[in-house]
Amino acid sequence: MSKFKTATMLLSLSACLVLSDLACFAQTAPGSRKEMIHRSLLECYSKMGRGAEVGQEYATLIAIKPNDALLHYNYGYHLLTAGNVAGAVLHYKRATQLDPANQAYHAALGNLLMQQKNYPGALLEFGRAGEAGRGPYEQVQKYIQQLEQQRQYNNMLKQQAAPKKTGGGAAAKKSSDDDDE
Q1: Where are the alpha helices (DSSP H) in the chain?
Q2: I need a surface site. Which of 50, 75, 126, 176 has the fewest CB within 10 A?
């Protein structure tokens, strides 16, 4: 049964490649043929649910076209769905560097940084998303500001609690304050 399954998968992969690119293959330049072949393989592997091969094809395509922002963004999404958050952040950042005007890239990176609790980085990316893309993120920005205020308040409480532990300095000050009344 496993031989049959393997043969079926190979046949479907071959058919997918032939049908998707036969018409335009002869009209393309040699450098773009390689890219086209790997894009076709990527599409076929994606349809077949073969994640490891999809990752290999993305890596090959990025080696061929390292300045393709959409390719980096899509590879980042693939890595994120595969559980590689660090790799996803890396490729989302590269996509935003290559196409800084793309609001969706900045917003996706902002969301990912939020999930990692990198609030300053997330806020920065949401800001870069631009006014048109900020609408849905205003609540997130407010939440980040509240977290920052809460952190500052907690630090202030810690600083106030520190002198109480050292001794009677705070008690002596309080008794001199009470004398004024």
Answers
A1: 2-25, 30-48, 51-64, 69-81, 85-98, 103-115, 119-128, 131-134, 138-166, 169-179
A2: 176
Give pTM, 2 decimals: 0.60
| CB 40, CB 61: distance < 8 Å | no
**What span, in angstroms and rounded, lies between the C-alpha atoms of 23 and 16?**
13
Measure Cα distances from 126 to 24, 35, 135 in Å.
40, 33, 10
167 burial type by CB count under 10 A (0-12 exposed, 13-18 middle, 19+ buried)? exposed
Tokens 């393309």 -> residue: 28
Question: Residue range 125-147: average pLDDT?
Answer: 68
pLDDT, mean of residues 123-140:
67
Lookup result for tokens 């996509």:
95
DSSP SS3 for 27: coil
Segment 104-120 mean pLDDT:
88
